[in-house]
Amino acid sequence: MNVKIAKEAGFCFGVKRAMKMAWDELELNSDIYALGPLIHNKQAVQRYEDKGLLTVDTINDIPNDKSVVIRSHGVSRDIYDKANSNNLNIIDTTCPFVKKIHNIVNEFYEKGYKIIIIGDKNHPEIIGINGWCENSALIVKSIDDVNSLNLDNNSKYCLVAQTTLNLELYNEIVNILSKKLDNITFKNTICSATKTRQQAAKELSVDVDCMIVIGGKHSSNTQKLVNICKEQVPTFAIETKEDLDIDKLNKFNLIGVTAGASTPDWIIEDVISFIESL
Ligand code: SF4
């Protein structure tokens, strides 16, 4: 059984940066709160929690004067306000690519534009972005959603996208909206880390007998990699090597491996050495 790994896989720049910032802080102070799981990878989160990180659901769960880690997904403006009024020490690991979307949304909203976001309305990144235009954005995630929007051609619109969005869907939506609206500004805010990982996964999946995609079940960029690989070859989505079905895997000779942007290197290496040992 041979294993080939995608050219780009695992932690992206933003997650690597966020994880390092949080770890560095934990080295100095073990009484730190994370607003939601640090990343969509429960094994990695566990390591941080073992070092003292406390994961909470809301800012109200954090006692005054403590430290709070804002995740790479970013948060809405009111979370910063609340953190400041509770005198929290903010460790802001928001990915700079997400921060850029907050700034765009804030700037255009203040100039009187209506904001359209392409993405999943329940994803923390989208909830955070929407919080920079007073939660007024129109949020769409499919062509059907776009076609059922109630648009006003006398208004100005600005469109942004979830960083992990598929580029083809973005282009299709831009195409539709540019025909419907006279005054719309498109901001392609898809992150290049996502694009390069998707491209590398696609390239590898045409060369191998099956693909293994490693990543959290709730990680949207991991699920997108799974869908891309599935179009080419049988694909197995796993979180750790324990999820591998050895009987199924034994049918293949050349196995491709890729991993979502929130999968740490040690989990990828673990999976590869396990397959190589079979
Ligand atoms: S996928 Fe892109 S936007 Fe998201 S954290 Fe990574 S680098 Fe930042």
TrEMBL record:
InterPro entries documented for this protein: LytB/IspH
Ligand binding (isopentenyl diphosphate): 40, 73, 123, 219-221, 262
Swiss-Prot/TrEMBL catalytic activity: dimethylallyl diphosphate + 2 oxidized [2Fe-2S]-[ferredoxin] + H2O = (2E)-4-hydroxy-3-methylbut-2-enyl diphosphate + 2 reduced [2Fe-2S]-[ferredoxin] + 2 H(+); isopentenyl diphosphate + 2 oxidized [2Fe-2S]-[ferredoxin] + H2O = (2E)-4-hydroxy-3-methylbut-2-enyl diphosphate + 2 reduced [2Fe-2S]-[ferredoxin] + 2 H(+)
Cofactor binding annotation: Binds 1 [4Fe-4S] cluster per subunit.
Active site per the UniProt annotation: 125 (proton donor)
Residues reported to bind (2E)-4-hydroxy-3-methylbut-2-enyl diphosphate: 40, 73, 123, 163, 219-221, 262
Family to which this protein belongs: Belongs to the IspH family.
Name by which UniProt lists this protein: 4-hydroxy-3-methylbut-2-enyl diphosphate reductase
Species of the source: Romboutsia ilealis
Gene: ispH
